[in-house]
Task: inverse folding
């Protein structure tokens, strides 16, 4: 698998995958296609020597065809997506353009190069999706399985559900070799600051409120991003064409528990790391107070799904996926990474 095209490879999960794959497969060439929207950042992959960044849009079908042909690419991993639910509520058009039309553009290019005018060589189109396509669970409902009916509840999840269906259709109609993974809530390094964990961490450092939607008891399965990359690798190496695999972290937690753990990790970091109080004097922990005093309840967002949970039995049994981080260890790594990499996130916060 020497040449890979990674769409959205300068974003959060895609960027972490580029780092992971380059570490695990150092002889492979990685071409990253990213249009560098607000959530894409050159600096995320700047230190990966075997990654080449091509700035472009996945809706540019001709560009994708050119890359597949000229770079002799037989594996495409598709991360590029608009992904923030709040943004999809206020502006759904961008989600339709990128997540549906963009995915269709990639599929068309792959079909043209690998099937219609190709040599019949082995190939793989891997599509990254989300557990949000399955809808919302009640407190006692069984976890999402790959056969769970799609019931998306936001423009974001609806656009991802549509892209999942397109990928499946290109396999069954045209014979394109595809796989899909539906993941739970990712967290870890290089996460854009609008998301819950980095938002609350950076707010805590500057003494800003920690805004909690509703009663704070919405439940998510939390997946450390390196474990997600491990699941994608297992799918690429061992997954069967046309199959879907759920990738989860096995850490089902209410948002309030996550927020409390973020507060505790920040307090611990200030107690253990010399100089943090001088760097972040507005943080409650810099003044000997608890970060939890910043917690503030706000009006719940529209269409806020109550609970997601992933059943990853199929991924474990069929492709050998095993997550290696529990939430405690993954969160500690995440908090310490942000404290050590202010140069990465500070420009994003300023913008």
Result:
């Amino acid at each position: 698998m020497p040449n890979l095209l990674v769409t959205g490879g300068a974003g959060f999960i895609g960027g972490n995958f580029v780092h992971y794959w380059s570490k695990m497969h150092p002889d492979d060439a990685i071409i990253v296609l990213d249009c560098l929207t607000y959530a894409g950042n050159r600096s995320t992959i700047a230190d990966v020597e075997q990654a080449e960044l091509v700035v472009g849009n996945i809706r540019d079908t001709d560009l994708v065809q050119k890359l597949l042909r000229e770079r002799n690419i037989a594996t495409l991993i598709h991360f590029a997506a608009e992904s923030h639910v709040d943004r999809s509520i206020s502006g759904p058009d961008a989600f339709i353009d990128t997540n549906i039309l963009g995915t269709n553009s990639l599929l068309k290019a792959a079909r043209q190069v690998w099937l219609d005018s190709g040599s019949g060589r082995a190939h793989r189109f891997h599509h990254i999706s989300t557990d949000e396509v399955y809808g919302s669970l009640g407190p006692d409902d069984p976890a999402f399985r790959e056969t769970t009916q799609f019931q998306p509840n936001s423009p974001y999840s609806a656009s991802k559900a549509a892209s999942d269906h397109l990928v499946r259709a290109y396999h069954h109609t045209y014979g394109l070799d595809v796989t899909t993974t539906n993941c739970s809530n990712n967290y870890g390094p290089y996460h854009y600051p609008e998301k819950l964990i980095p938002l609350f961490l950076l707010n805590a450092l500057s003494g800003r409120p920690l805004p909690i939607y509703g009663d704070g008891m919405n439940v998510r399965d939390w997946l450390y991003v390196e474990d997600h990359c491990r699941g994608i690798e297992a799918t690429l190496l061992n997954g069967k064409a046309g199959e879907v695999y759920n990738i989860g972290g096995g850490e089902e937690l209410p948002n309030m528990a996550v927020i409390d753990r973020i507060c505790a990790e920040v307090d611990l970091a200030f107690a253990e790391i010399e100089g943090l109080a001088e760097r972040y004097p507005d943080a409650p922990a810099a003044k000997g107070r608890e970060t939890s005093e910043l917690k503030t309840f706000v009006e719940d967002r529209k269409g806020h799904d109550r609970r997601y949970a992933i059943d990853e039995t199929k991924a474990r049994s069929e492709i050998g996926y095993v997550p290696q981080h529990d939430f405690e260890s993954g969160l500690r790594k995440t908090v310490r990474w942000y404290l050590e990499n202010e140069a990465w996130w500070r420009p994003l916060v300023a913008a």
The two ends are 38 Å apart (CA to CA). The chain has a mean pLDDT of 95. The longest strand covers residues 124-130.
